[in-house]
């Protein structure tokens, strides 16, 4: 039987400020509601050197499938580094930034082999937007 996926919580004390306890409560709540086993909540302060690098080390050590955090502000523009190794879930607004299972160069290029790009008509004068991966050329 498979166990629940593992998540860690992450926040920066300087970003949460007086809302830190509330942010930790929300992290626990969202992780539980989404079916994750919350291994720990990692809290870094403004004096922490290279917090995202330390977060990545923790993700690897715990084997986390996801990181749950209050907002993207806690990553300070480093979402791309974290989403390479696990999903990133924000509480407010509630979003999931899924990691890519395949390297980006493995995905088909829109326009190649009849694959339509998002928002491009179907070639018959219909300007309906296409949902990537769901519509096929007719």
Quick overview of this protein structure:
25% of the residues lie in helices and 19% in strands.
Roughly how much helix do the residues carry, as a percent range?
25-40%
Q: Total strand count, please?
A: 5
The average pLDDT is 82
Q: Roughly how many Å is the radius of gyration?
A: 19 Å
Strand content: 15-25%
Note the gap between the termini.
42 Å
Q: Sum up the overall morphology in one term.
A: globular
Structural class label: alpha/beta
- Report strand order across the widest sheet: 2-1-3-4-5
Largest sheet: 5 strands, mixed
Low-pLDDT segments: 115-138
Count of helical segments?
4
Give the SSE order as H and E letters. EHHEHEHEE
Helix/strand layout:
Layout: E1 6-12, H1 13-16, H2 20-33, E2 37-44, H3 51-62, E3 66-69, H4 79-83, E4 87-90, E5 95-97
Parallel strand pairs: 1-2, 1-3, 3-4
Antiparallel strand pairs: 4-5
What can you see in these coordinates?
This protein is of the alpha/beta class. It is 25% helix and 19% strand. It contains four helices and five strands; from the N terminus they run βααβαβαββ. Helix 4 (79-83) links the parallel strand 3 (66-69) and strand 4. The radius of gyration is 19 Å and the shape is globular. Residues 115-138 have low confidence and may be disordered.
